[in-house]
Fold these 4 entries.
Entry 1:
Amino acid sequence: MPTDLLYGAEVVLNGLMAGVLYALVALGFVLIYKASGIFNYAQGVMALFAALTLVGIMEGQVPFSHLINATFGTNIHHFGWHVPAFAAILLTLAVMVGFAYLVQRFVFRHLVGQEPIILFMATIGLAYFLEGVGDLMWGSEIKKMAVGLPQGGSLWVEENTQWLGFGNEDFYGFFIDKLDMVATVIAVILVLALVAFSQYTKQGRAMRAVADDHQAALSVGVSLNFIWILVWSLAGFVALVAGIMWGAKSGVQFSLSLIALKALPVLMLGGFTSIPGAIVGGLIIGVGEKLFEFSFGPMLGGATENWFAYVLALIFLVFRPQGLFGEKIIERV
Amino acid sequence: MLDQADGYMTADGRQIGPVVMEMKNITLRFGGVEAIKNISFDIREGEVRAIIGPNGAGKSSMLNVISGFYVPQDGQVLYKGVQRPQMRPYQVAQQGIARTFQNIALFEGMSVLDNVMTGRLTHMKTGMFSQALWKGRAEKEETANREVAERIIDFLEIQAIRKTPVARLPYGLKKRVELARALAAEPSLLLLDEPMAGMNVEEKEDMSRFILSMNDEFGTTIALIEHDMGVVMDLSDRVVVMDYGKKIGDGTPDEVRNNQAVIDAYLGVVHDE
């Protein structure tokens, strides 16, 4: 097999796995948008906040330690214990559920029936508020996400794909990040679980009902408040998973919140209302930008990954504004 | 008339039970406008109760008060003899009061069957976690609920469109699906807001037939709003007549038909200057 084709295949594989990570973030957007029509700008910050909280709990950091020390003149930073990863994940999940409750109770409950743009503005406010709270609670240093996820390239894949080169000296087998593989598996499980939840459980059915028509949902006995808290909790859970994956990849730092911007083109491509759309959109963007960089990057001076996704999304917007899987916009006259 | 506490027997031999829902001195205001002015009436178990009146009489507002979508400024709502505290609409639904809407509120993206199944939500007991962990019980419950839904789909003759997304259905069928969803809740009181609005004669006849046999076969208590006097008179056991937010008549169709205030409201009256 020619070497170029092999490299191309490797690029596609890596693109697919990067796409999974984009899809993870996009998924959180879709969940909230479907159920409440809110475009949640804060999704990226939620991922950051979840990651910060997880690391903070694991390391036994004292929350708000700077504030406490400054107020009382003390000097405490650590409880002096370490929480095992699994327990810390559960605790973080509880924090995200609490966050969902507070958001619903103090923000969106008071904005029911408002214009979408108002709700969107509220989530922008929420994003910066949460970023500030994250900083205040856990500090702004870059931290390591040490939840025991494998790092580095997979030797196994490399050794077992070497034969594809058919004696070609330059080919050492595919290089695939172990973390990306784990992320893929987790994303698949997560999506299957979400689909099963929304299709086959009482709460899932109620969730779909609320997403479709508020009045009708009320008339069949569904509490909008409860469903919205549930949806924000689910989005918090997805944010936690995305936060762990991205945190493990590039460290827990405040630029993590910018991954939300990467999810935007994914959503334009896949449609804001479709879970499968988020996945497929993520994969297309992941593969597309890697392939583009691989084949045209050198010509254009590189770093095409920064803008390629947005151009692709723009082209899509022109020809298919509802996205690949979005609900078709039909105007009856 | 009709002061028997335990109910009475109708001419066609249906047993009408005690009072299920009692509205006492209900007043509802929107800003300075009084939509409902000090109205009292009751609904008995097993009867078809109609609320009629000209446009803007406050009929829909009354239905919205019963189903909890509007909160009256004054008056009491007594459900099954107990005074109802202020409730959210979903809590009212959980108490066993189902409704349809004048402008149809269906889950457009879901199939007909899924829509009818949402009507069973108040009957689904197993929670989120037991559904995830205890597959057997959730499955049994799902099957039982599915059976009820299918029975109602058969009853309303919409088997052929079970799997069709609601958005694709014509208006008349949507009305019927909405009725199916409300009926699926096996409500102790079913509220129908203009079930025949915008229908042609044939569709109206179908709908009337369904309402009557629903009441007859399942013993469903029904309160309905209707514009068309003729239809109402054939369907209902008792009629409340509203005009400009006031109650101007209450009784059997015959009594109401001969009530001078009602005739005036419907036909207009020459005022002496």
Entry 2:
Amino acid sequence: MELERRGVVAPLVVTETFLPLVQAQARARRVEPRLVVVPHPVGGLNEAELAGRIEGAAAELLRMADEARGGA
Amino acid sequence: MSAGLLDLPGVTEESWQEEAHRRGWGDGLPLVAPTPARVAAALAALDGIDLELGPLPPSGLVPTRESFAANAVMAGCRPVDLPVVLAAVRALQAPEYNLHGVLATTHPCAPMVVVNGPVRGTLGINSGSNCLGQGTRANAVIGRAVQLVTTHVGGARPGVMDRATQGSPAKYSFCFGENEEDSPFPPFSVRRGFAPGESVVTVAATEGPHNVNDHGGTTAEDLLLTIAGTMAQPGSNNVYVKGPHFLVLGPEHAATFARDGWTADAVRDALWERARIPVAEVSEANQRQFEDWGVVPDNDAYPVSTGPEMLHVLVAGGAGKHSAWIPSFGATAAVSRPVPGA
Amino acid sequence: MSTDWDVVVVGAGIAGLTAARVAAEHGLRVVAYDRLTPGGQLVNLTALHEHPGGTGPELVAALTAAAEGAGVRLAYAEVTRVHPGSPVRLETSGGEVTAGAVVVATGLGPGRLGLPGEEALARRGVSTCAGCDGPLFRGRAVAVVGDDEWTAEEALELAGWASAVTVLVPGQPRWSPDRAARLAAAERVEVVPDATVTALRGEGVLSGVVVRTADGERALAVAGLFPFVGRRGPEGLVEGLAADAQGRLVPSGGVLVAGDARAGAEQSLTAAEADGRAAGEAALGALAASSGSLRIVDPTHGVLPEVDAAPVGAGSTATWTDVALFTNSKPNATELLRGLGERLQAHWGLPELGFAAKENASVAAEKDTIDWLSQRFKMVLVAVGD
């Protein structure tokens, strides 16, 4: 979140479980983070499961990235 | 109505517990209703003392005098307990304590509060028999108040923001005094640079205590073998996150060390050498995990934390042949603060 | 008394959302019902005047966020009947609920002329929302019927689309001098006082209206007609509550009414907001009076420290080809980031990505690392929570 304050586009990859925590921090810092939410957990996954997480999150990330670049 | 007061319509002293529970407040145990009169009485103990508190994660809110005192009241504190609670909350706001990491972690760490100095006697903080257990009001309410302040103002509600996998009963309350009177060593706070006779609170984010039973040992060497064996376990954060850990010697074990000519620092240094985890007791997957954190074995064994200075030795408890090892979250530090006004 | 809610607010427009927020800020359990979406008429207002809230939807978003932030639950169901009492019982399309207090803030229903054929021409030329339907009348003539602030505001809005806007005022305008001046300055707007619409013309779609003035009756060819007269309050919603000639409720017997739905309300945003605030406070008072209350010090209270919220100038010359990954070093976080990074690399045709890692997932990032990333890169993909 500090990166965004410095003008860097910084999407945060966060699991559903930790989303409330990240949102609370964002409120405390008065920033609106760009969030890419993936199902929990990430740790302990095997390669196939991890590939699934990447697949699921990629579209949202690319959309967010295009939007940020287009708006700059 | 001034900010920070709530009128709970339809709620009475009798139905207050239900209301507090419904609002997600507290730790599951009954709470004292923080009425303005009770809070004002509690705040009288902080007359002339600035809170000197900063924002609490994750909400980023700074407690007000009133909300700080309200949490102490809810925990069951008497007014005289507040300065010790304040010292503890100040200590856990030190950056090296890493409160944010502590609140959000899956690790079962609790804010351990150790009290030194005359305030133990004034408040009746137990440093003797069953000091880590139930039954002493000051220990129970001070440790609990520290948790409630961070939970309520910081907003780290269990299960929502507090992501502990299992947690620990120590998270209800974890506060005790050092048994300076029965210790052969200088007080823990004095060894940490405070003046003798000064009341000091030390906090760290730790697990609950692990018992070290040694009834057969008669020498310091005997005890060291048992303690080192208890510490040399591959499942503590201190192995790869490193950080501080604590050895709380029962007075009888401490007396054995002293009789054999050992100082607290000598005990610490010997345990650094002897508490080693054989590589064979660590899975290859965990060896790789340790290596990712920059931890490599030293002669086919892993040490506990990074050096002898990471082990803090103190004395607490009553009669008997038990001591306790208290591992920590790792990414934390022992932080000491004087008790204001004491 | 055990109730489902301390306060039920019926209608989530500016008055309702404000009442709900104020009550919730006092620690009450509050639900605000709306048939559709929060916002009431505000959603239909593209530009707001006399209120510093930006556009209607922007103000709605802010009001909704403030209410939810204070703990208000928003429920999307229609409240069909309110039975005052202790507790208050409310029939809703989602079942019955009970509350200690109720605030009725439904606003007014849509405008109606009460002419034959009006129902059949609804949404076929007859509309009550300039912001929604204005673009349908681009380059065509429309008429607006009414005498109040809403009428003027909607006419001004329509002037942005229509070729001509005739404002038919049943008597004399009641809008403010400021709005009168803005209407006079609008080239395409003509205001006709003492005008009555006597008939609608059109087969299937509206083609015109018949207007009677002191000069007699004449036909006015319009493709669109926006009536803001004949709007009625929620009469009959609350058992035993009296209504005025416009169907607006007269508060009594502990039933609170806020905003345009209240008899005697001044129709403006600021008045509705003030009304909502007063109703929220009154709900608190009513509850305390009926059942007593326990006053406590809020144990969750705190103050946000002053922070410099302004963006810190990076002085960075990084471009969109400068993209990095920043991992928290938890197991698999790095792998996940690299996977996502590869997708972005392919998508944008990027060269190598930068990479940084927190040494320890459990502590905050090093300032040096943040400095390096912010100076060197335009975009950094960060793994934070697991």
Entry 3:
Amino acid sequence: MNPARITGALRSPVTFSVLAGVVIGALFLVGTGADPITAYEAVLTGALGADGIGSTLTTTTSVLGMGLALAIPLRARLINLGGDGQMVLGGITAAVTGLYAPLPAPLTVVLALVAGMVAGAAYAALAALCENHLGVPLLVSSLLLSYPAVSLASYLARYPLKEPGSSLPQTRAIPDGVALPAFGDSTVTVGLVLVALAAAAYWFTDRRTAIGYEIRMTGLNARFSAYAGVERRGLTLKLMSVSGALAGLVGAIGVLSFPYRFVDGSLTAPGYTWTGLTAALLAMAAPVGTVISSFFFAVLQVGGLAMERTTEVPRELTQVLQAIVIVFLAARLRFPGRRLNRRKEAV
Amino acid sequence: MFLDSDLLLSALRALTPILLAALGGAICERAGVFNIGLEGMMLMGCFTAVATSWFTGSAWLGVLAAALAAGAYSLILAVGAVTLRGDAVVLGVAMNLLAVGLTGFLLRTVFGVQGTFDDPSLAGLPLVGGFTPLTYLSWAAVAVAAVLLSRHVWGLRLRGVGEAPDAAATLGVSPVKYKYGAILTSGVLCGLAGAQLALGNVTLFTENMTAGRGWIAVVAVMLGRAAPVGVLLAALLFGLAEAAGFRLQGLGLPQQATDAAPYVVTLGALFLTTARRRRRIRPSGAAS
């Protein structure tokens, strides 16, 4: 990288937004009487230390999965707000497959993953069809469809599929062996590898294929790309299907790793969908950027817990920090001094 | 009987917060600002109303503070989208997220509880004829907004700014001023909606207690074609769905079915109305 690119990156809205978030977060910490340095140190050591790294990588699996799910349509400037519904449907479908498929365990795992992806994809495609053929904006159709899906999964986990005798709203545990292999005795599973492969596939498609070019072109200028022959409705349907499939995959991975069952609320409560959306927005949907920002937010989420333990500052602060980053980014603020620079170049 | 006056009463109670927020959304839509931050503004209103009512002992100060706080919060959208020309959709999403985080954070630092703050001595709004005064205010607001938008010079200028900002600017009408006015009004209305939700419909604060009502308000704006009376009818549909849901729950249907009812009804209503006029609605949810 040449120096101009580096100074450009430093002055970019992304750097500005992240720094602004960190500074405002520090003000919040001072306001609650905590020492910002200690608190941020606790975030980093809590998330990246020996005790926390496993948890961070497990969280990364979900956040990156949802980040990719939301980044892929966002690349064409489509916003899928129904990630929760698609993820939960993927999870409950994987749980049902895991419980009832009469196949050997390894095949059941594969089938459960595929079934979860298909369920998420089909549900997301429904939102795309609403926009394409019924004129309901995708933003609204995907979000409104999400609530009934979450309710349905919650109903299934509380009534027909409920574990007999348990006081918790959860299904029975899937049979032994029907689980994603974990690395050592950590909670990190092959799911992380699957999500990483998805990221690699997205990078390749985005950089090296015709459809990736069409997607980026649509994102930059939808009218121009329509004029150039990109079929918008088909593209919306494809992008939403892929997005839903990834969200379903995240749900299925959640069920096929600890606690090996579908627990009502366990997929939606950590807010993976919204963290994923934040990560995708921060990276402006670029593949490598989404990976980096997803990891960054996973660190914040896990480190937030450690911060709460050491400084007694509520971990909700990390959520505030995330949102502030996006507020600044959306307002397109950047470091001053750009104009000065340009004038120098002109001379 | 299933359809009786009780059902209508509970529908009207469920209607008020959505109507107030949707009116704000409609005013923004007319001024050419796509406001999807209603949910977050409403949530800020809920928290401010409960906190102020708790510390001052007056529900009315709570209402006032909620309106002011949500109005101030809406400045994020005004500055970001109008002055800095940022993306209104992304700003709205971020504002909703920020409100959830901020209210959750404040709930724990100010009240020291997690999840729900609920106290018998928390002062709620008084009931006048079965409704809170804010309910009557919301009906009055529909009438005022309808007259202002269609008959008053402010309304004409506001619509002009929304439809043709350049032409409005040429005629000496400042688009920036009118857009700021519309966004601040929506913020104040959302604050009142939040106060109604947290001090009227119930008397407590729960994390994320708006539970999608701001989004329903966004849909009500579309369904009602951003006209105050249309928005009232659309919001009434949602109120009826919510009230009917509660009634069905009493008849033994699981809670999940009734939770989902308003969204399914709203979506169904959207299908029915937009199928006929889909060319007139913005073609995508993506930002412009």
Entry 4:
Amino acid sequence: MEFVMAIIIGILFMAAVYLILSRSLLRIILGTGLLSHGAHLLILTMGGLGGTSPPVLADGVTDYADPLPQALILTAIVISFGVTAFMLVLFYRTYGEHKTDNMSLMKGNDEHD
Amino acid sequence: MDFVLLIFLPVLAALFVPFIFRKLKNVHTGWFVFFVPVLLFIYYLGFIRLTMDGEVAVSELSWIPSLGISFTAYIDGLSLLFSLLITGIGALVVLYSIFYLDKNREKLNNFYVYLLMFMTAMLGIVQSDNVISLYLFWELTSISSFLLIGYWFTKDRSRFGALKSMMITVFGGLMMLGGFVLLGIMGDTFSIRELTANASTLVGHEYFTLAIVLVLLGAFTKSAQFPFYIWLPDAMEAPTPVSAYLHSATMVKAGLYLVARFTPIFAASEVWIWLVTGIGLLTLFWGSFFAVKQTDLKAILAFSTVSQLGLIMSLLGASAIMYHVDGTDTAIFKFAAFAAIFHLLNHATFKGSLFMIAGIVDHETGTRDIRKLGGLMSIMPVSFTVAFIGSMSMAGLPPFNGFLSKEMFLTSMLALREFELFNFATWGMIFPIVAWIASVFTFVYSFYFVFKTFAGKKKKEALPLQPKEAPLGMLISPVILATLVVVIFFIPNIIGDMLVKPAVLAMQQGLYTHPSEVAVHVSAWHGWSSPEFLMTLGIIGVGALLFLTMSKWQKLYDIQPAYFSLNALYDSFMIFGESGMNRLSRFYMTGLIRTYLLYMFTFLVLLTTAVLFIKDAFVVDMDSFAPVSAYGILTAIILILAVCMVLFAKTRLAAIIALGGVGYSVALFFVIYKAPDLALTQLVIETVSVALFLLAFRHLPALKNHGESKGFRFGNFVISLGVGIMVTLVALSAHSQKLVPSISQYYKDTVFTEAAGGNIVNVILVDYRGFDTLFEIAVLAIAGIGVYSMIRLRLSRKESSDENK
């Protein structure tokens, strides 16, 4: 199953990077969302997917799923939400200021040097 | 008492200068500063007894012991001589500056802070035993020199000169640091004393010659040797007390100090002897030759300083020969080291006084242009006397100290003919010839300086100010120096025993054990038929002839076109540097975020993939894989479909919903892989995210392609494909390759006994890694503040723009 997951992670990263490199601001934000999904699954896969029961202590169970990646991902999910929200408002404000979402027009000019 | 702390006394005193300047407006700030060098001078005088016995004093202050770096002050004959020069001339210069700089018009607080900073830096250079702290002080002198040259920073010339000196000396300083690091690698220590003691083991090391060249670059740039001297004439834009202090008596001698200090380490090398002697002699000739061309009083002195520094440099090079001769031959080579130190001292006295006189002339007449000056002798008799004494000493005439050291210089250069190693037998004759020619020009510019200014006809109408004799206070310092010039001539051997011989002992460690073994006796008279006497006669004869006919041949200098000079080279280098670098940065800094991301992703892919294969880290361990499950495959298909929808969505709404689909499939994966907490969180967060997107949806523009061409998209595709493949490879090998055992087992084992919890993930978050969670909340709070302020910012701005209307 790890092999399948590795390919899915690759696809997620690829789609994310492709979107981030585009000119449309909204696509860039969508890309960062995909990027964090990919990263979360990457951490999960690194730890191994073989556990047969959730990491909650129970009598007679020895084969728990790895708790460490889960703890890391839990933090990461919340943080990525914060980032997405921030980006979204940034986008909203940028669009409000410049009346465009075309990244190739947002490069500053000599006055900004 | 730890005298290492005294190095920092001036800079400590500098802390109080701005307060004194503000609070006590009626008293010239210089009077307070004056005490610092005077006290230090008196204190350092006490060491003379010590160094005369060949003893040394060490005082340590540790700094970074783990790297072997410390502030270790080390006083031997050489350090002491320089320390006395720094504080002695420093005191005289401060005294002079009190009358030179007006207390009401000048920013004295800046001036004295820089000057005291320089004093500390200079004392640090000459007393440091550790090369790293030496380097630190070395750069501090460059910085304080930069600040002092640019003291009148509203003048273009001042800023230009300051920058030029900084560029050249800091370049040399960096090279020198490289040399020091190489020395540290070779000798496994940063201590000069230890390096000197192990000098014989360093010779022949593969870095030895490179270290020599690098250290010499530092010395040559600082001491204004050819071809780096060009910064010194431009440094003359500094106030004259600064020129007298930094750019003739002390800072430019730091390079000489460095060469003298490293002579015991490097003397074994042929490269060292040739470079130091050769460049020194070339500089001596070059400086004296071009000094005659100048029309600005201070420029004449600047070129003469360049030339005199070259003279001392060549003597230092010649003194290294002492390490290659033994037995009875040594007597003739002993002169060089003694002459170098002796002339260094003499030069400080006569050149210091001459600079002060140039300042007085400038101050009292309003110009330093020698073409406008003349006939000041009767108006400024004291200044003339001092200038006369200084110039005659510089020209090498008796009864002044310059005569003695000039004679010893000629003796040393003649002695080079006798040296047999390193091709000196064939080329040795060049040294006395060049030395003689340079001495002739020295004679000419010395006369040019004093007589064109003070003798001849008065040209009163051309002077901006009505000339008068300088105030008494301004004359004290030059008169003291001029007196020394005469006194040293009559008691050269007492000065020699007290200061010069201990310094020679330090410079030629291992050859002597006590200063008295430097058996050099200075005498003014060598006999009628001695070559020195005949050379001196020739210098006076030819020099006088050239001086009298000067008006006829001085124009010859104009033949050299301005664009064919070292200064033009420097200027074009600076211009090219600025515009070239600007163009280069503009070439790759396009201002587009996408460009920068492209660089980052490309290098990320290349570096990671390369490391993965070079380190042979790509491993796939099929056996450890979990079995493929039907639910997993199904979820994977849903996820891939959702990703494709995000990629190809034509409308905003479809893209947002598809993104939510990706998030929910990830949540399904969390369910499949036994991560209930993650699944719950992911579901909640994804729902809130989609809601947020939909909330903002109304304000967002429709999805547009903004004219992305096929090539543009293909480029993006290639980069993203690379990233995707790279991450897949990393994911596979990260799973298969466990270099260190996981700490997960520790959590599983202790979660109940240590934290009394059952849900391992939750316990990790709130207990084992509680701080991490706390900061996570902080990040969320900051993001919230960011979101809030971005919206608020717009409102307040809109309000203010409304008010403007």
